[in-house]
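Re: that chain you flagged

S.,

Sorry for the slow reply, it's been a week of failed gels. I finally had a moment to sit down with the sequence you sent. For the record, here it is as I used it:
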Amino acid sequence: MIGKFIREARDAAGMSQEEVSAKGRINRSYLSQVERGEKSPTVTMFMRMCAAIGVSASDLIAKLERAKMGASRRNKS
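Prediction finished late last night. Pasting the structure tokens below so you have them in one place:
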């Protein structure tokens, strides 16, 4: 699910996968797999992605937490 938030942040920054890959020294196909939810990034790679995009890692994690809390509440109903 974190990949969804990485993709949203990248799109909001107006960056292509190629730009993020080059800036963060990340393999573009790996970034694509993370965004599609096929791979989970290590903490180091997550931090590099965030830095390359120019977004706070804590902001993306907070979005993930809010999404999980919302899903948890919906499942209890």
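What I noticed first: The chain has one domain: 2-70.

Talk soon,
D.
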